[in-house]
Structures are given as structure tokens and as C-alpha cells.
Amino acid sequence: MKNFVFLLVVVFFGSPLAKGLESGADQRLRTTFLQSAFQSGSRVVVVGDRGLVGVSRDFGTSFTASVALDDQLMLNSVQFIDENTGWAVGHGSSIVKTDDGGRTWKVQHQDLTQDRPLFGVYFLNSKIGVAVGLWSLILRTEDGGATWNSLSPVVFGGSEQFDLNIYAVFGDGKHIYAAGERGFVARSDDGGLTWEPMHVDYSGTFWTGGVNNNGDVFVAGLRGSAYVHSADHAEWVRLETQTKASITDVKFHNGDAFFSALDGVSLRIPSGGRGCEIQTRPSRVPLTGVFIGGDGQPLYLSKKGFVQ
Hints:
single chain; mainly beta; four-stranded antiparallel beta sheet; Methylamine Dehydrogenase, Chain H
């Protein structure tokens, strides 16, 4: 695939389990490639390979599992807008929705005729949402996913030949941001109808992004590259991550930013972006996602389940 660099082609190793995961939890969550986590307070939802979904109501101490897709397809991203309503996206251009907190799921969109996975999903509210993926695949809904319409790449400031892979879409409840290859970042202020490219002085790939409680926008990706844009700076500022490990996810807690990365690397950048705490696990297990446990400490996702 042209210009396609993604986690699935990385050679993975084993990993330890997160402390506190109950022995009675679904064993699939201990061994499955987990790809993404959504968190709202004590509630954590994780998704991964073979359409697996895990839901926790105690900061990840225990999980119950369900299956949202065919067991040959991977889910890459998940988001909930309230206690019951959420969406997940994955391979086969698949979009699935739950109205009961993740116990059951319904396929809203799928195209198994093309190898165009969706990598990210974000909903502003119960009606308006955007999903992004391979080769500038951009889908938008105004009716909660009952129908999905493909957006022309032109709305992202590209041409009809715009073929960037878009790996992340995220927001703050007002604005939506998308990020991907060649340093691509764009912002929409109208629910994904139109997009304004945001210049970042970087030509590599961004795999993830997020917005903290202060409204600071973070993007991160290949070779430890991470940038932040805030009201205090007219331009994007590069963060000193002290690693060349590619960053796969970012979450925020008490003003700090927590990053997961390949090569067993995790990062914590305190509020204000001064300094960086880095940890490298001896197993070098690639980390694919992060959420915050009940003690305020991060827990990470990997190919083999959860990692401390």
C-alpha cells in the first residue's frame, strides 16, 4: 500500500497483564491485540482484534466483553457520547453502534470489497459524527450513523487525488481535528462540513491526537514526534519527548499528558510541557493505547492485552 505505515505490520512481543485485572475477567482481554481505549471517569471501553470490545466500570480493574464485528476484523477506535451510546470503527470500512453501553452492537456501515480500514471516529453529539481512514477515506453522518456520506478530499484542502492516510480524528465538543500522513492536521468548526488545514512544520506521520481541558491540541506519531498548539502560541510547538519510539495514543489527567508508544515506551509530560518522564519496558512490548486507572496511574494497551 502506498505510503502506508501502520501498527499492524510491526512485529509484536508478549506483555505482562495489568495489576488488578480480575481472574474472572474474560480471558480474551488478556491475550487479544487491544487497539484503542475510550474513558469517561471510571468507565473504560477498549476495542481490538476480532471485533472484541471490553467494558469496565471500575477504572479497568475488571472488564466484561462483547463482540461487535466478525471475528476476522479488527476495531481500531471507539468513542462514547454518553453512558449508553457509542461507536467503533475498524477494518472493512466498518462502523458499529451500541445503545446499551457496549453489550450489543449493530453494524451501520461496511464495505468488504475494498481494503480501506477506518482508523478513527469522533461524534460531536448524538447526530453529527466523522470517521476517517485509509487513502483519505472520510465519512460523515448527521443522523447518528443511520446514513454515512463520503466527503470529497477537497474539503480537507487537498485535490481529488489527495491520498493521505488519515489516522486520527478527535475534538473538544466544539471543534473537530483530523491528523495523518505528511504532517497533515486540519480543523473543522462546523461539524465536519468544511476543514481548514493547520500548518505543522513536520513532514512525518501523525498517528494520534487529543485536546486537554485547557483547550491545548496535541498531535503525535512517528519517531517520538509530538506537537502542541495552544492559545498562548501562534504556531505549533514541538515537545521534547526524548525518544524515537513512535507514539500511538495520548490521554490527559490532572493537566499531564500520557503517551503510549512502540518499543515498550511510555511518556508523561507534565502540564506546561516542561520536562518529560519516560519509561521503557524490558520486553519492548509495543504499546497501542493508554487510559488512567483508579489510582491516577496510566494503564496501557498492547497486542497481548493490558500492560502497566
